[in-house]
Amino acid sequence: MPKITAKYFSNILLDPPKEIRIVQYTTDSGFYRFDVSQAGETLEIGYFETEKLAMEEVNREFQVSLDEWEASNTI
After folding, report:
1. Given Cys at both, which of 19, 29, 54, 59 links 48, Cβ 3.0 to 4.6 Å?
2. More confident site: 56 or 16
């Protein structure tokens, strides 16, 4: 299972997300990253021009490799 650690957002310590989603809407060429809290609340983390850039950000932040990400994907 990927290692997910706590982080800060606007100087507030957040619990590690239960889930990380990278989403592309049909009306947009870019990708959005959302973190889902343990309580089910969704927080938009950022916009990325490519899926690769979004994945690289998750890798840097949580040390999650693409192989680990795909292995834990339940969709």
Report:
1. 54
2. 56
Phi and psi angles of residue 10, each rounded to the nearest 5 degrees, phi first: 50, 45
Q: Using an 8 Å Cβ cutoff, are 19 and 73 in contact? A: no
User: In the structure, what pLDDT confidence band is assigned to residue 38 with cuts at 50, 70 and 90?
Assistant: confident
Q: What are residue 25's DSSP bridge partners?
A: none
Location of structure tokens 């990708």 = 31
Q: Which helix (H) or strand (E) holds 70?
A: helix 66-72
pLDDT-based confidence at residue 73 (cuts at 50, 70, 90): low
Amino acid symbol at 36: V
Predicted TM-score of the model (pTM)? 0.70
How far apart CA 29 and CA 36 sit, in angstroms, is 23
Distance CA 22, CA 53 (A): 11
